[in-house]
């Protein structure tokens, strides 16, 4: 008798990476249940669709359902897995007009995360989270004057037509309030400014992009202001008010009239499916996984935004819901289930974001108190240095924050901002950190130098030199 | 009695880095002898001055003589050190109208390298090497119509006025032959094309930029052709012919009429000063140095383009005359002589070059036969992958060659080419290589992903994935 199939819940990055890798390695059956209509889409591209840099919504799709079928994957869209019974190795599935039990040999939970909405009324017209192609399509329609709306923007995909039509029919907004100064908030500030709106960005804490540290956060705030965005830091938003359609952002007792709002205050792992199974969860409620993506339930794996991972610096369990992690962990689980045990890899917390012309990156532990909490004795330096030789046109001052442990000299984290090739330079630090380099070793790396690309001492090396000098002194 | 001073021969990258660091660490005297009039200039910027991207010749200077004096350095320009007597710890110096013995406590030989001229007649008008500000100024003057030449281009520096005037008076050329397809050849092809010349590039071997490997070399050649350069590979040049002024490039029995030529066939270490001292030399005749820049002569150090270094991959002695190496080794020797022993650091052979719009990088061992000679069992893969998410505008196909050892999986070298942030990505590989990562570890690095900067799998990760798959399979 054939083994029961490998069942995957979720048809995006982690789930389809797992199913694809699995099918390349084995002839066994794999079934992917996706509760929605969209599969294999680039969540991170949504702000750029709204901005108008991406021509069609469907350009954000990586694989079509038929390409997925061609890989030998049994994909069932609009099939929600509502519960798991680990002792029987079955899941209960609700599809259009049916409900059934599906046995599995192994199960991968790749249900992702959803945008948090906090106390905000996202049922008002004009209020959006940026999480999923339907919300991106609806916001794009909302931003466009009814007479100018072009159905071609959607391409040929299973979009929520009714939602798009309702939004396309509304008068376009003139001023937007963005709640939250993280990735989504910063990217949407750029997108909405490009669409001609007067944009106000509200951030509860004193700086934008918290995980990037003070120097980068401050520089991003200044750059956003230069680009016409009004940045309100240290301003918790109490609510979004309106009657049917959003009319105001209420903050600190003030009311800012707006006719559009984006809520970007974080995401939450979609673990509901495992409620009642007794599965262990870790930080932020994500499903606890080991080095191979195994949960604490037998034959049940989790990968992607729903799962924890091991941090490359602390060695501790962490939760960093980002795209590469999801793809990589999914692929590793696919290989493991197919019989080739493959670690999912650590996460270093590497992240990059574009804020208008400013490129930002971060990795590892950038916050001294987080580093202390992990048992380190951190020291930190922030420098600015040119991105190219001073005489070569087109360079920009590059801000680098570097954190290292005083006792061992080990590089713990870093952040970077600048307009000229700054973001991709974070990969140098990510590689150094995952290789356990000390700041002295980092300082002595033989990095690239040519006037169009870098000064003799790359900004990363300058930061290492300064911090190393302080640790040595 | 005070100790004899620290004497430095050569007033550019290595020499002035050493003197500056030394003076920051100690009150002892340091004397820098420079045989020419220029000090502290950016050799690597010369092609961009010729191209016209750099406004004034003096923009290429980092430090002026007075800034150097302000650092407490006793700089003597137009002072040539003609010999060393290690047993007496003295050098013989020839200055304007004088010749004297200078005792030293420690000596640093930082005499750099000179452009090789091979069999080519560089005394002809219109024939240039690109090595030093005087040759860059002369070529710029030669390229400019006499009526249009603007003395302001020179800024306020000790330029060879007579040479500039002679070249400025000549009719500007229309067609240039470049001999050599390395860094200088490729950069000058871009510069001379920008100045409106019909450019022919001759390369003895079958590909350009040999140390970058076949895939990158071929892509550079194709890109140069797209940009209007005629690339002649596999075409050894026999000579540059002319009567007073260059008239033709003779190659393979053919004659190409030209009225300008650039010879860029490599550089040679300037070791003449040490002739007869019995100092050990290493590959290519450079002065052999240890991990602290010490030569085999007592109290004599060497750093920069004149000295060998240790290769990060092979652990063997090598000679890689590049800017960062020179600055870093000089700085380390300055610290060591001041009493804080500081290793000069290994070299990984990291190099980047811009060829018109194409950015290229290389590091480590990219050539399989070089890797075999060093005792490895190399495997190599070349991939192309997008530099950004496919839907995000402005990306480019990025070519990555990766070399690893079959036995250990260790990453040995790599090369990269592409138009979008390709060059700086070599730093990721440089860091991985200097950290002794395996290709499997490289594949699992948590590198940056955001649509404007990288696809989910960065081209470097794609290369690692493919090569790792092959090594595992």
Give an overview of the whole structure.
Two copies of one chain form a homodimer. With 473 residues, chain A is of the alpha/beta class. Chain A has three domains: 6-36 and 78-114 and 268-337, FAD/NAD(P)-binding domain, CATH 3.50.50; 127-264, 3-Layer(bba) Sandwich (FAD/NAD(P)-binding domain), CATH 3.50.50.60; 357-472, FAD/NAD(P)-binding domain. Chain A has twelve helices and 25 strands. In chain A, helix 6 (183-194) links the parallel strand 10 and strand 11 (198-203). In chain A, helix 1 packs parallel to helix 8 (323-337). Chain A is globular, with a radius of gyration of 23 Å. The interface between A and B is large, with 65 and 65 residues.
CATH topology of the largest domain in chain A, by name, is FAD/NAD(P)-binding domain
Multimerization state: homodimer
Instruction: List segments of chain A where confidence is low: pLDDT < 50 over at least 5 consecutive residues.
Output: none
User: How would you sum up the major sheet of chain A?
Assistant: 5 strands, parallel
Report Rg of chain A: 23 Å
Question: What's the CATH H-level homologous superfamily of the largest domain in chain A?
Answer: FAD/NAD(P)-binding domain
Class computed from helices, strands and strand pairing of chain A: alpha/beta
Number of beta strands of chain A: 25
Provide mean pLDDT of chain A, rounded: 96
Overall 3D shape of chain A: globular
- Give the termini separation of chain A: 70 Å
User: What proportion of the residues of chain A form beta strands (DSSP E)?
Assistant: 25-35%
């Amino acid at each position: 008798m054939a083994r029961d199939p490998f069942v995957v819940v979720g048809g995006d990055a982690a789930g389809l990476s797992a199913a694809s890798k699995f099918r390349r390695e084995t002839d066994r059956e794999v079934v992917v249940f996706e509760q929605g209509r969209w599969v294999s889409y680039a969540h991170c591209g949504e702000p750029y669709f709204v901005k108008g840099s991406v021509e069609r919504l469907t350009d954000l799709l990586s694989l079509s359902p038929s390409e997925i079928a061609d890989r030998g994957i049994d994909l069932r869209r609009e099939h929600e897995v509502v519960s798991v019974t680990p002792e029987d190795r079955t899941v209960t599935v609700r599809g259009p007009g049916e409900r059934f039990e599906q046995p599995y040999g192994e199960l991968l939970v790749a249900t992702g995360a959803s945008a948090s909405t906090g106390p905000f009324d996202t049922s008002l017209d004009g209020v959006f989270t940026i999480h999923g192609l339907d919300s991106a399509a609806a916001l794009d329609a909302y931003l466009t004057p009814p007479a100018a709306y072009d159905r071609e923007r959607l391409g040929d995909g299973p979009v929520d037509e009714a939602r798009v039509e309702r939004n396309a029919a509304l008068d376009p907004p003139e001023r937007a309030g963005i709640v939250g100064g993280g990735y989504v908030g910063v990217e949407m500030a750029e997108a909405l400014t490009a669409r001609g709106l007067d944009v106000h960005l509200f951030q509860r804490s004193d700086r934008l992009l918290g995980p990037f540290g003070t120097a980068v956060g401050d520089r991003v705030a200044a750059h956003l202001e230069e680009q016409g965005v009004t940045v309100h830091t240290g301003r918790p938003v109490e609510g979004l008010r309106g009657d049917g359609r959003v009319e105001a952002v209420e903050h600190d007792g003030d009311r800012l009239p707006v006719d559009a709002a984006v809520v970007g205050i974080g995401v939450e792992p979609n673990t509901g499916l495992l409620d009642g199974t007794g599965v262990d969860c870790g930080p932020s409620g994500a499903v606890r996984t080991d080095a191979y993506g195994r949960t604490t339930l037998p034959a049940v794996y989790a990968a992607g935004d729903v799962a924890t991972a091991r941090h490359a610096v602390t060695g501790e369990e962490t939760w960093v819901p980002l795209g590469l992690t999801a793809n990589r962990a999914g692929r590793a689980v696919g290989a493991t289930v197919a019989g080739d045990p493959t670690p999912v890899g650590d996460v270093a917390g590497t992240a990059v974001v574009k804020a208008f012309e400013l490129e930002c990156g971060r990795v590892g532990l950038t916050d001294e108190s987080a580093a202390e909490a992990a048992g380190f004795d951190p020291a930190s330096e922030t420098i600015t240095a040119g991105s190219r030789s001073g005489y070569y046109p087109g360079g920009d001052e590059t801000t680098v924050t570097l954190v290292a442990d005083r006792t061992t000299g080990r590089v713990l984290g870093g952040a970077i901002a600048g307009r000229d090739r700054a973001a991709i330079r974070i990969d140098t630090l990510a590689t150094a950190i995952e290789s356990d380099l000390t700041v002295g070793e980092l300082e002595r790396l033989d990095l690239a130098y040519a006037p169009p690309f870098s000064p003799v001492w790359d900004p990363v090396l300058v930061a290492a030199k300064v911090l190393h000098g302080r640790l040595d002194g």
